[in-house]
Design goal:
The complex is a heterodimer of chains A (181) and B (284).
Chain A (H helix, E strand, L loop, with lengths): L21 E7 L2 E7 L5 H8 L18 E4 L2 E4 L12 E3 L12 H8 L9 H14 L5 H7 L11 H15 L7
Chain B lengths: L5 E3 L4 H10 L3 E4 L5 H6 L7 E4 L9 E4 L3 E5 L4 H6 L1 H6 L1 H9 L3 H4 L4 H7 L7 H6 L3 E6 L2 E6 L4 E3 L2 E2 L6 E7 L7 E7 L10 E7 L5 E6 L6 E2 L1 H8 L5 H14 L10 H22 L3
Parallel strand pairs in B: 1-3, 2-3
Antiparallel strand pairs in B: 4-5, 5-10, 6-7, 6-10, 8-9, 11-12, 12-13, 13-14
Classes of the chains: A alpha+beta (181), B alpha+beta (284).
């Protein structure tokens, strides 16, 4: 019985390859995680299938579209082309880790107020690329924002509202509003 | 994935080399940005995966006296692009690094992985070639060093033997006044391999180096032109001549990205543009 997910079965037994499960320890959204997983499992599948963190999406599955972007050890990466085992000891943030006690971060709220999403499939990855950019550069210009999200494909909105949302977030965060919410 | 593999991540180089020696069907994993896609498509079904990221020697990025800049096999493309020392001395390498795929991918992809994958269009290969980078190779039997210009042997093929792996590459020291440029034509920026990639370098003593990707089974140095260009001042006429002449030297193929004709044309344009840039900039 998996208490966390109120699941009758054991959430940590999804083994496809038939190989012996191996242990993985890492920190996901500030929480230490220990699991036994299929060694051929990708990090993306580990997050979705094992941890039930469904925010991170699988698009192309080959590191092109960026829907699976997460932040791993402070760097945005494509989780679909990383083995879960490579994340042993890593510190991982997914889109679920952006909000605080159910309250959305300023970045998420700006995406909403700028209508920077339609179908929303690219949004988790887009948010993580944006978060990583703002963590390393508090005042990015338009070119830097475009470069940071060049690996995230959006097929609905066009990119202008997204760029505006990131620019506005950067401004608000510089003014210290981040700490107030 | 159809692959059923053991995953090992040794802490010591000797452990890794012994593992490689003892286990047929081992693939080396650094960034995984090429390997994982092969696994996903079942284009490769290795029995063993050797993750080299925990090996200290492989994670070094340092200037070595009398040798030059050492870039370990696990140094990512973004680490290369953000290294102050590399930005100062090897501009074409930084330009190529910044042009490779997306930011997320560059956080995983490694410079050494780019050359070991040995794509004819490997973005980082031509910059390494114009700087005569040295590739340090190790196996359980010992080590050897190969010049990057003799590292590639064919499409996706290198001089690496089954039991060997690359520890890193060294970029020889450059003198004040050295300059270089990387130009790439692709259907869209990032996310696509080059239609043609041109790297040109002018050394402090005005020798010109030229290497091109995606126009032959391997990245190639254009030695014929290098000689001609190095024996005279770099003028607009000379750049124009080189742009025309390069079309007689390379023999590109048509593929999904471009026709051979277009490749010939673009190679000429980029060679001329690169040389004009170097002529205008002089040594920086």
């Amino acid at each position: 019985m998996c208490e966390k997910h109120n699941n009758e079965g054991n959430c940590f037994s999804h083994v496809e390859s038939g190989l012996k499960a191996v242990e993985i320890n890492c920190t996901v959204n500030g929480e230490e995680v220990c699991a036994y997983i299929d060694p051929t499992m990708t990090l993306l599948n580990f997050l979705r299938r094992e941890l039930k963190l469904f925010g991170t999406k699988e698009g192309c599955g080959e590191g092109e579209c960026g829907a699976c972007t997460i932040i791993m050890n402070n760097a945005p990466v494509n989780s679909c082309i990383i083995l879960a085992l490579e994340a042993i000891g890593a510190k991982i943030t997914t889109v679920e880790g952006l909000s605080n006690n159910g309250k959305m971060s300023i970045l998420q709220r700006e995406f909403i107020s700028h209508d920077a999403l339609q179908c929303g499939f690219c949004t988790p990855g887009m948010l993580m690329s944006a978060r990583a950019l703002l963590d390393r550069n508090q005042n990015p210009n338009e070119k830097e924002i475009k470069e940071a999200i060049a690996g995230n494909f959006c097929r609905c909105t066009g990119y202008v509202p997204i760029i505006n949302a990131i620019t506005e977030t950067a401004r608000l965060e510089r003014e210290g509003i981040k700490n107030e919410c | 994935m159809l692959s059923k593999f053991d995953y090992v991540k040794p802490q010591l180089l000797t452990e890794a080399l012994n593992y490689l020696e003892e286990n047929d069907g081992t693939r080396i994993l650094a960034g995984g940005t090429d390997l994982m896609i092969m696994l996903r498509h079942n284009a490769d079904t290795p029995k063993h995966i050797l993750d080299i990221k925990a090996i200290p020697e492989m994670n070094l990025l340092e200037n070595r006296i009398n040798e030059g800049m050492f870039i370990g096999a696990c140094i990512t493309v973004n680490q290369v692009a953000e290294s102050k020392a590399i930005i100062d001395k090897y501009p074409a390498l930084v330009q190529a690094a910044n042009y490779l795929a997306s930011y997320q991918l560059r956080n995983r992809a490694t410079l050494v992985g780019n050359i070991c994958n040995a794509s004819p269009g490997a973005d980082l290969a031509a910059p390494l070639m114009v700087y005569d980078a040295k590739v340090h190779i190790a196996s359980a039997e010992g080590t050897r060093t190969v010049d990057i210009n003799s590292f590639f042997t064919g499409v996706k093929r290198t001089v690496l033997k089954r039991n060997e792996l690359v520890i890193g590459v060294t970029l020889p020291e450059v003198s004040e006044g050295d300059n270089s440029i990387f130009l790439k034509q692709a259907r869209i920026k990032g996310h696509d391999l080059a239609i043609v990639g041109v790297t040109a370098r002018i050394t402090a003593d005005k020798k010109v180096r030229l290497a091109i990707t995606a126009v032959a089974p391997t990245p190639i140095s254009i030695e014929k032109l290098e000689e001609t260009l190095s024996n005279q001042p770099l003028t607009e006429e000379i750049a124009d001549m080189a742009g025309k002449e390069v079309r007689n030297i390379i023999k590109p193929i048509s593929d999904v990205r471009s026709s051979a004709d277009y490749r010939l044309h673009v190679a000429g344009v980029l060679v001329k543009r690169a040389l004009l840039y170097l002529a205008a900039m002089g040594g920086k």
